[in-house]
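Workshop exercise sheet. Pairs work together: one partner reads the sequence aloud, the other fills in the structure field after running the prediction. Swap roles for the next sheet.
Pair: D.N. / O.F.
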Amino acid sequence: VVRNRVKRRLRHLVAPHLGDGAPAPVPHGSKLVVRALPASARADRDRLRADLDLVLSTVVRKAEQRMSAGAGR
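Structure field:
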């Protein structure tokens, strides 16, 4: 029950990042795996959102850096 609740909460929080105009949009065609640690079950919505936003913005930034570095070759 707890695992499914966390999964639903995270799915809801990830959805806005998947569209155009999102704060840290996940590039189209990307595969995204979110692994929730046990502490996620105790985290409130704001904490989950902040952690997810931080991670996604970092991942998107690094992916863009790799793409731009590969384009310069």
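Discussion prompt: Residues 8 and 34 are 12 Å apart (CA to CA). What would you look at next?
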